[in-house]
Amino acid sequence: MYCSTAPGCVPTEADVNEVISATEFEDSNGTVHLSKFLPYVSQLIAEHKMEPAPPEKLLKAFRVLDQEGKGFVDKEYMTKLITEEGEPFTVEELEEMMAVAVDMATDKIAYELYLNQLLHEPPDSIYALADQLRNRSNR
């Protein structure tokens, strides 16, 4: 469901299925109508649903994986985890992450550096815009 991931939302497969289920035509095999989709997803965004995890939570997760406290995680170990555990990454998601995360000289992920690369939230993020709209309507 590219429509919900493009603006900065991070839905799980279950989230995507829920959106489809809530907005599809009856007896249509997953065909979603824009007139149902937009209000539904707008409400999810206004409520900050499917928002990326906060940096502190990501850092804590990396530190759990880095049991020796070296400040990095091996690419091979990380690849195994994110393709075999939890909700696995697709090949495309894995390649996209590794292109940014992995230090090519060491084949390791220096996770604090990686997280710093991810943390820039543009002022026009979908969630910042939703907050601005809510603040304007509360005046």
UniProtKB/TrEMBL annotation:
The keyword Iron does not apply. Residues 53-88 form the EF-hand domain. GO terms for cellular component: organelle. GO terms for molecular function: calcium ion binding. InterPro entries: EF-hand-dom_pair, EF_hand_dom. SUPFAM superfamilies: EF-hand. Keywords: Repeat. PANTHER family: DYNEIN REGULATORY COMPLEX PROTEIN 8. This is EF-hand domain-containing protein.
